[in-house]
């Protein structure tokens, strides 16, 4: 699976951005998808995950209620809608995938495939 993240940019605090992650290669619809981010000097942290069917989602507490993960299997794409953004959301955002038919995990180590990252900067 090859992943290509896009949609990052500069946004003011309180604003919104929508990230996309386009997948190619193996059968995308059977892969759980996740979004992570990494700020300078910090570890890569989990944000959200979605099951292959879209029926199960999982969020980190820091983004619960502000970020929404979704997917369109017909277009091999997963999205991360980010609202009420804060300067602390500034980071490189990564999409990731792994094969499972179960509930998606927040463990970074479980994800086998990673996109190249897209920069998100939130100004105060």
Structural description of this entry:
The chain is an all-beta fold. It contains no helices and 11 strands. The protein has strands at 2-6, 9-12, 17-24, 31-38, 45-50, 57-59, 67-72, 77-82, 91-99, 113-114, 118-123. It is globular, with a radius of gyration of 13 Å. The N and C termini lie far apart (37 Å).
Task: Compose a concise summary of this entry.
The chain has no helices and 11 strands. The chain is mainly β and 124 residues long. A hairpin with a 6-residue loop joins β4 and β5.
Please give the largest β-sheet. 7 strands, mixed
By DSSP (H or I, 4+ residues per run), the number of helices equals 0
Q: Helices and strands: which structural class?
A: mainly beta
Poorly predicted parts: none
Mean pLDDT: 95
Helical amount:
under 10%
Give me the strand/helix succession. Answer: EEEEEEEEEEE
- Ends apart, CA distance between termini: 37 Å
> How many extended strands?
11
Strand content: over 45%
| Coarse morphology | globular
Q: Whole-number radius of gyration?
A: 13 Å
Task: Jot down its keywords.
four-stranded antiparallel sheet; mainly beta; 11 strands; 51% strand; single chain; 124 residues; seven-stranded mixed sheet; globular
Q: In terms of topology, how is this protein built?
A:
Elements: E1 2-6, E2 9-12, E3 17-24, E4 31-38, E5 45-50, E6 57-59, E7 67-72, E8 77-82, E9 91-99, E10 113-114, E11 118-123
Parallel strand pairs: 2-11
Antiparallel strand pairs: 1-3, 3-8, 4-5, 4-9, 5-6, 7-8, 9-10, 9-11
